[in-house]
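User: Reviewer 2 asked us to show a designed sequence for the structure in our supplementary figure. I'm pasting the structure tokens here. Could you produce the per-position amino acids so we can include them in the response letter?
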């Protein structure tokens, strides 16, 4: 069995939201003995209210997938050891791609965006991306989620009060280019390649990346010499890392890391 000795965890944020949503996770993992870091996406190192300003939005509109991969690769190379990568949403896909490039000691993909490849199980995801951004029909460089979409698709299992608070605290503009890149071949994963341990975590109530889509992602990995695991958490939506019971999700990841350490 592949065993890891790394005690450094790097959290990678998803699309549409500020990296500040990892704050309680940083404390949780730090208290478990890990060194933690949660670098923001390039051009997003500011408070959400400032990023919603027009001047900041122009910079965000230039973000693309290849730039994100280079950016996180450079950060990883400056760390003292290969980190455990924990990514959410778009960040989960980045984890898969960074694992493929051998930049991780282990990877955790929470509600991960799917890589390239045809499957009916991914149709809901692509439908949502097109609804959110109109990436083929809009000349705008950024998209800002509406509260209605946040409430009904992304954070649908929370109370309305929680939905309002988290929307105001974390929602920021997203790059249309970064979203458009999801449909290109540069998100392709070699599922037969040997890899470090990977753990896919799904929410049963996720309407954005459904548990079926995440299970498809997990099952595509075919290397029998590598550890690949999957867990569906009941009652949780796409933003299970923000829910009042977020510690249940964090605990399941820590337990998995304990098993492979």
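Assistant: Here is a per-position design you can include in the supplement:
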């Amino acid at each position: 069995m592949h065993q890891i000795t790394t005690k450094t965890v790097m959290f990678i944020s998803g699309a549409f939201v500020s990296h500040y949503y990892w704050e309680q996770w940083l404390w949780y993992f730090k208290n478990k003995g890990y060194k933690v870091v949660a670098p923001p996406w390039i051009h997003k190192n500011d408070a959400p209210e400032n990023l919603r300003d027009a001047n900041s939005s122009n910079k965000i509109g230039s973000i693309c997938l290849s730039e994100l991969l280079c950016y996180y690769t450079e950060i990883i190379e400056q760390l003292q050891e290969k980190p455990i990568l924990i990514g959410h949403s778009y960040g989960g896909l980045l984890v898969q791609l960074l694992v493929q490039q051998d930049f991780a000691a282990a990877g955790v993909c929470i509600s991960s965006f799917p890589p390239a490849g045809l499957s009916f199980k991914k149709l809901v995801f692509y439908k949502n991306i097109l609804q959110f951004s109109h990436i083929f029909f809009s000349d705008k460089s950024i998209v800002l989620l509406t509260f209605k979409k946040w409430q009904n698709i992304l954070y649908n299992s929370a109370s309305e009060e929680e939905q309002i608070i988290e929307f105001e605290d974390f929602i920021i503009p997203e790059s249309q280019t970064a979203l458009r890149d999801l449909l290109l071949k540069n998100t392709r994963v070699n599922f037969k390649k040997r890899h470090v341990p990977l753990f896919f975590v799904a929410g049963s109530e996720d309407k954005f990346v459904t548990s079926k889509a995440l299970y498809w992602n997990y099952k595509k990995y075919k290397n029998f010499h590598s550890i690949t695991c999957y867990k569906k958490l009941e009652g949780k939506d796409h933003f299970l890392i923000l829910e009042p019971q977020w510690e249940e999700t964090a605990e399941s990841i820590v337990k998995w890391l304990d098993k492979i350490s």
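For the response letter, you might also mention the following. Strands lie at 8-12, 35-37, 84-88, 106-110, 142-143, 174-175, 198-203, 228-233. The chain has eleven helices and eight strands.
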